[in-house]
Design a protein that fits this description.
2 copies of one chain form a homodimer. Chain A has 251 residues and is α/β, with parallel strands linked by helices. Chain A has 2 domains: 161 residues, 3-Layer(aba) Sandwich (Molybdenum Cofactor Biosythetic Enzyme, Chain A); 75 residues, Alpha-Beta Plaits. Chain A contains 9 helices and 12 strands. In chain A, the strands form 3 sheets. In chain A, strands 2-1-3-8-7-6 form a 6-stranded mixed β-sheet, with helices on both faces. A 4-stranded antiparallel β-sheet of chain A has the order 10-11-9-12. A two-stranded antiparallel ribbon of chain A has the order 4-5. In chain A, helix 3 packs across helix 4 and helix 8 runs antiparallel to helix 9.
């Protein structure tokens, strides 16, 4: 790591029985991670998927918010009885769970006075002192309190609002990455790759990921570093000393 | 819960920087959860995604294996330098990390004597005393030690071998589920649904999940219980007192 490299990290807490039961495929983790990484220089160090149980939400959030710069939660901020994230996060910070005046006004306007029922009102209840994360899709805002950002579980909605978190984040240094895709199997290159990882230990993380394409087996080698020049040096070595030498086909 | 209901639970640990960076979309959690649920009556209570770092793998596995009946890990059992799951799990159980004779023989046969290089041999190194989880796709077996099952990260391979874990699992009681899909928004039914959840608290978990279909917004109501009869009673009430009364369209 370079001395002036600024590391900022985050954790993600996915709140939802439907993810744990396998009924719903989570699509938010990879999206949030990529967005944090690529747009903000923030790396996600840990993800937890937990059930809709207040005690567990409180315990998990308390544990992770002390460990990482930022925590992102997904799920549980809708209008139904199983949406308990906002209430639970109020307990985390020991503040009142109450109507947020601006959120209340936004939702009242969105639904119209006559259709603003209890479930819809509930979506404006948050921990006292929260900042809103505006939602251009379906109006109901997410919220941020201290270093915890609470977002909805529906991927389309989450994606439409995540950029509204950016102004609250301090950015980390950019991590560059490059990759080489080869038609080979990992066990054919593992030894050479291991040697290179040792050599570049201080600068580069080398990852190796098998893939399948049109019935053929391949390996994607991914180089990640804050030093663009070292990535290019390492890539050249891989191409020359592994790919060319072993006559491996690139894709 | 009925008195004779047998609860068996599990945790999943996804090991892989590529999942944390957002580069790769995890597809194993939902698959394993469903398989455990539907085929074995085992519910997944927690998932963690962690990096390829020995210290963290050891700590996380130690924490979770005491909390749940079974732990499933995915990723990190291939031939490359970043595959450190087997070595880390050896440290969890304080046993030797060594060639498993049967795994060694399987891989030697699969690759042929002349192509059985160090990377390939590495895939037969495991914690001493492990049982093999056979792999019909690409030969390299997963392993089980005490209540920890270690599986590969590539979804196609994992799916082809998970049934080989079944013989080691004690089964839990089956949890039944049924669902009703409605063209409406959650906030239109949240109050009535909340009341029903209170009424059926002892028997049923009612979940409510928004979805989008051909540009229309819908809600999937999911009922889960070990009591089939109660599910059917509750479903009838939802159809009569919410769906019919509010003239909501079903899909």
């Amino acid at each position: 790591m370079k001395k002036n490299f600024k590391k900022v990290n985050a954790g993600i807490i996915v709140i939802g029985n439907e993810i744990l039961s396998g009924r719903t495929q989570d699509l938010n983790v990879s999206f949030i991670s990529k967005w944090l990484n690529e747009k903000n220089g923030i790396s996600v160090n840990e993800v937890r998927v937990i059930p809709d149980v207040e005690k567990i939400i409180v315990k998990t959030t308390n544990e992770l918010r002390k460990k990482y710069n930022y925590i992102f939660t997904t799920g549980g901020i809708g209008p139904t009885h199983d949406d308990i994230t906002a209430k639970s996060i109020s307990k985390v910070f020991k503040v009142k769970y109450e109507y947020h005046p601006e959120a209340f006004a936004i939702l009242k306007k969105y639904y119209g006075k006559n259709n603003f029922n209890d479930g819809r009102k509930k979506m404006s209840k948050m921990p006292r002192g929260s900042d809103l994360i505006y939602n251009p899709s379906s109006a109901a805002p997410g919220f941020k309190i201290q270093n915890v950002f609470c977002l909805p579980g529906v991927p389309l909605i989450l994606r439409s609002m995540i950029h509204n978190c950016a102004k609250y984040l301090k950015k980390g240094s950019k991590v560059y990455s490059d990759s080489i895709n080869l038609i080979t199997v990992e066990s054919n290159i593992s030894r050479d790759l291991g040697k290179l990882q040792k050599k570049y230990k201080k600068y580069i993380d080398i990852g190796s990921y098998p893939f399948f394409r049109l019935g053929r087996v391949g390996v994607s080698i991914v180089l990640r570093s804050q030093n663009k020049h070292k990535i290019s040096l390492c890539k050249t070595e891989i191409l020359k000393n592994i790919v060319e030498k072993k006559k491996i086909k690139k894709v």
